[in-house]
């Protein structure tokens, strides 16, 4: 009987230490991860004010965001980003683009994960270079939440 208690205690201790490691790993992650983007939509010029976002729950601290039809210069060849979260739950994303500036704008889709979030909180996501922002409530049962009310701050 003592062996069963010792075995159960060892398993419980292992599970608790693994759980703490996951929380520590989450704290070490950057706020913005896995940024990717599409090339310019072929044969289409940008139609302004048609951006929308889809947000989904990944885990208790991470949300996936895809911004559709973002108006970006055609000459951009690479996009990177960093993010900051302030005390008012505003996530400010700064995009860093490279490439030659072209005399055209095209629609691209941008996807990324945002870490270090708290479930049950409404966040405002601002992407400075695109002059847009939107609000989304981060919760476990959010499914894929479509956000149509993108605010263009131009």
From TrEMBL:
<protein>
    <recommendedName>
        <fullName>Lipoprotein</fullName>
    </recommendedName>
</protein>
